[in-house]
Design brief:
29% helix; alpha/beta; Barwin-like endoglucanases; six-stranded mixed β-barrel; Rossmann fold; seven-stranded mixed sheet; Dimethylsulfoxide Reductase, domain 2; 932 residues; globular
Length: 932
């Protein structure tokens, strides 16, 4: 049994106080690693306390958690939640009932169908949905509305891998497991900052590296945290991955590393792949095109060729490209040529970005798929699915993919759209196009847990969904492991599961087949469809369709067994009682693939340059991605003060020589402009990025910054096969963002609504959530002698009960203002030249104090601590809250030369390990200081 039952503890006090503790094993809602977590709820009459730790028994993480997972409890409050159904936009929005709102959706959908046809309706869903939610909405749209106009934000992260798998293997599947990374001899990380984006898997790889002779190669345009421990870093030019792996294919073939018996028995179309890659037959040409030094390129090719067990993990840097499918197939081709697949420690491995991207693929969540790994354009598959569902119709052609979908909304082809658990105004490329589209759309439904997001502002109907901790169902991680996501929190009164909301609308439109009362019933139907007319590999039947995706062993699962279901990898061909943990760890062991020939296919991959090249107007290449402590559009992680300090502001990373060339400086503000839009970011200089390139995170939105949605800037071109957008290659220009002054404003938590007037009077701002206080970085263009610096001019605290302290120096272009009430710090504002603004973390610590001493007041007004030793500096280790100054002090006083010594002294780096690269950098800097 994998759930830990509630433990009721009685504590005897004078008041006979009752105390209870319940621990529930569930699954983390962040990345595709799919870590198991144990959530503990302690309840007393005074309230409840929630803590989250790693599940020691979960086979994906064995108790490890990254900093985001460790801080899940920080994100469970109700302060930003959408708690009741609402109708109307803007000032017309009002609370309504579920009965009324589902009736309105059903009526409006039916009107669209009657007037314009089913193709006038679209759904845009998310890898944040549970498999049960995903299944129901796809059944409703494809089997009952009869359209395939349903796509998912997984289109933005792994649809290229899906297409590549289907072309090579005949089915969308990852053939290996995380365990393979612990038994391989070489790991190739392609387009993946694994240390930050999938930290727990990275730590498993690093542990394996310390225990055995494991070689790690990183292929990435930037030198990231992942490169710190790598044996080889290949700083490839953006968009040249096909060239690199076509060159590897040619090298392997020319040098005699072909596994001829494997190729002959289990593959086909090698000649076409070799012909397509002929232009990369000369390694010197490959070196020139990729920008990788010839010596490093030869070293990598030799290592791959001479190592029997190779795992190639590829992620967003491969997928998010106009050539993403070909990039993935070029990688797979090299594994097929050498037979490095279907054996322990050898496989290509697609790492997904979201917790249930794989589950969405299982149920046909993409616009060009049917449920249970069946194909939308194959009549046999259409017949199988429609027959199983007993549905009135079935979608027979691919629907609109994400970018095309919102373009169709803007042109009026789509009249109604339902968006679930995602924020496309931030996450999609050319994001202002999405804004225009939703503004024009006749009927927009949004299901979310947050009331105020960039996207909910355009909703005609808002549906309050269940959040993590309240949901009940399953998710599937990147190694095909199905895990239970269990509810452990009380459900807010009017919030509902997404599958329930869809069922209500379906029934009100007159459809049967949606009488589900529990997620278990949905999962059971999902399992039954996976095995329905699913032919055996060895006895394929024209009237059936073989799929590796098969949950036949779970078709009779009971409610109790579902509640207690342990993490399990598919295919699941045995009953729960007969299952062996190793049954499905590795696919293709017998060399049988899902193509009708039972063979894998080499795919001809042409090395084509990115669609949009640099120009005189836009001479730099923008690459976007994730950072360590944030997730997607920050609607969850932005609530945690423990996750906001590592990278507190929206920024862009550029090479120092480019900073000189374009007239920008470290920590200055810069406007990043493309042909599609612009935004304002803080400059970070880095030697780890090549000249001519810019990196910016994807996370910030209009709730956290005035102008930082990088999606507005991103190139909307997509891969012609997968429809996945080109997030890694947008031509841009950098220009200094002129401001006359900069400042930092702190205001105690709960009073943010009072500063809206202030923010309207500045040209730029960023919000940073800190413990008990919110910090706002601000800047303006009005002249200093026209600015009234006193806090009273920014905030409406004119009550005589507030105590004011002001310090101004016009000649220094500086003003400090402090406000207190009953000795408690309420707010503070500093306006000064950027280099004279106070240490942000030090000021924030004073908001934690119940009362301020006279010394603290003087220090606050001066804008600097009385002693530099009085604060730890910017946070480096988020897990144990260890700051930069504390680490430097410890390094110097203890003569530290290795990061393990820092961990021994301060615990920093001892949990998720994401901060270890920074700790190593601090050690190196201190050593250089001593040597100088």
């Amino acid at each position: 049994m994998n759930t830990i039952p509630a433990v009721q503890l009685q504590s005897t006090t004078d008041n006979q106080l009752e105390y209870s503790v319940q621990t529930t094993n569930t699954t983390c809602p962040y990345c595709g690693v799919g870590c198991g977590v144990s959530a503990t709820v302690e309840k007393t009459v005074s309230g409840q306390r929630i803590s989250v730790t790693g599940d020691q028994e979960h086979p994906s993480n064995f108790g490890r958690l990254c900093i985001k997972g460790s801080r899940l409890a920080d994100t469970l409050g109700l302060e930003t939640r959408l708690l009741q159904p609402m109708i109307g936009r803007g000032d017309l929005r009002k609370v309504t009932t579920w009965d009324d709102v589902t009736e309105q959706i059903a009526t409006r959908f039916q009107q669209c169908i009657d007037t314009y046809g089913a193709e006038s309706i679209a759904f845009y869903v998310s890898g944040q949905l549970l498999t049960e939610d995903y299944y129901v909405v796809n059944k409703f749209v494809k089997g009952y509305l009869g359209t395939a106009n349903i796509d998912t934000n997984s289109r933005l992260c792994m649809s290229s891998a899906v297409a590549a798998h289907k072309r090579s293997f005949g089915e969308d599947l990852v053939p290996a497991s995380y365990k393979d990374f612990e038994h391989t001899d070489m790991v190739v990380l392609v387009g993946s900052n694994t240390a930050w984006c999938h930290p727990v898997l990275y730590q498993r790889i690093m542990q394996a590296k310390t225990e055995r002779d494991l070689t790690v190669v990183v292929i990435d345009p930037r030198f990231t945290a992942t490169c710190e421990q790598a044996d080889l870093h290949l700083p490839i030019l953006p968009g040249q991955d096909v060239t690199l792996f076509n060159g590897l294919l040619q090298y392997l073939y020319q040098q005699g590393y072909t596994d001829h018996s494997f190729v002959t028995a289990y593959t086909e179309n090698l000649d076409s792949a070799l012909l397509a890659s002929d232009a990369e037959a000369d390694i010197k040409v490959v070196s020139e095109k990729t920008g990788i030094a010839l010596e490093k390129l030869q070293q990598f090719y030799q290592m791959f060729a001479q190592t029997d067990k190779v795992m190639s993990l590829f992620s967003m840097g491969v997928n998010q490209s106009s050539q993403g499918v070909n990039k993935a197939n070029a990688i797979i081709n090299c594994h097929l040529l050498t037979g490095k697949i279907g054996q322990l420690g050898a496989a290509p491995f697609s790492m997904t970005g979201q917790p249930n991207a794989m589950g969405g693929r299982e149920v046909g969540g993409l616009a060009n798929m049917l449920a249970a790994h069946m194909e939308l354009d194959q009549p046999l598959h259409q017949e199988i699915v429609q027959s199983f569902w007993h549905s009135p119709r079935i979608a027979s052609k691919a629907g609109l993919k994400a970018v095309d979908l919102f373009q169709a909304v803007e042109t009026g082809k789509i009249k109604a759209v339902w968006i679930m658990a995602t924020n496309p105004l931030v996450s999609l490329p050319d994001a202002d196009q999405v804004k225009r589209a939703l503004n024009k759309c006749e009927f927009v439904v949004v299901s979310d847990i947050c009331q105020d997001t960039d996207t909910t502002a355009f909703a005609d109907v808002l549906l309050p969904a269940l959040g993590w901790g309240e949901k009940d169902g399953t998710v599937t991680n990147s190694e095909r492991r199905i895990s239970r996501q269990r509810a452990f929190l009380d459900t807010p009164e009017h919030t509902k599961a997404d599958w329930w909301a869809v069922c209500q609308v379906a029934k009100k439109m007159g459809f049967s087949g949606f009488e589900f009362e529990h997620a278990h019933q949905i999962f059971q139907e999902h399992a039954e469809l996976s095995s329905y007319q699913n032919a055996a590999m060895s006895h394929r039947d024209e009237a059936k369709a073989f799929r590796y995706f098969n949950l036949s062993g779970l078709t009779q699962i009971s409610q109790s067994d579902y509640d207690q279901l342990k993490p399990i990898q598919w295919p699941v061909l045995k009953s729960i009682d007969e299952l062996n943990d190793t049954d499905s760890e590795r696919l293709f062991v017998q060399g049988q693939y899902s193509h009708s020939s039972k063979k894998a296919k080499f795919i001809a991959t042409d090395a084509i340059a990115p669609v949009h090249a640099t120009t005189h107007q836009y001479p730099l290449i923008l690459n976007t991605g994730r950072i360590r402590d944030q997730w997607h559009t920050m609607t969850r992680t932005g609530l945690s003060s423990n996750l906001t300090t590592h990278r507190a502001e929206p920024y862009c990373e550029i090479h120092p020589q480019d900073a000189l060339k374009y007239g920008v400086r470290e920590h200055g503000l810069v406007e990043v402009t493309s042909n599609w839009g612009k935004c304002v970011l803080r400059v970070h200089l880095s030697e780890g990025i090549r000249r001519g390139q810019v990196f910016a995170p994807i996370h910030w939105n209009d709730q956290f910054a005035s102008d930082a949605r990088i999606g507005k800037v991103v190139n909307p071109v997509v891969d012609s096969i997968s429809g996945e957008p080109e997030f890694k290659h947008t031509p841009v220009m950098l220009n200094p963002f002129y401001v006359h002054w900069q400042g930092v404003l702190y205001i105690r938590e709960g009073m943010e609504q009072l500063i809206q007037t202030c923010l309207k009077n500045v040209v730029w701002w960023t919000k940073v959530k800190m413990t008990k206080v919110n910090r706002f970085e601000i800047a303006g263009r009005n002249k200093l002698d026209e600015v009234q610096y006193a806090l009273k001019d920014f905030l409406p605290f004119d009550d005589a009960s507030f105590e004011w302290m002001n310090l101004s120096d016009t000649s220094m272009q500086m003003s400090h203002s402090i406000i207190l009430k009953d000795g408690i710090l309420i707010a503070s504002l500093y306006i000064a030249p950027a280099e004279m603004l106070p240490d942000r973390d030090w000021v924030a610590t004073l908001f934690k104090r119940e009362r301020l001493s006279a010394l603290h007041r003087k220090a606050l007004l001066a804008g600097m601590p009385m002693s530099m030793s009085s604060h730890d500096g910017p946070l480096v280790c988020s897990c144990f809250k260890v700051g930069k100054n504390k680490i430097i002090e410890t390094i110097k006083t203890q003569n530290i030369t290795h990061e393990k010594q820092v961990t021994a002294c301060l615990k920093a780096g001892g949990n998720c390990g994401s901060c270890l690269p920074e700790i190593r950098g601090l050690i190196k800097a201190c050593q250089q200081e001593i040597d100088a």
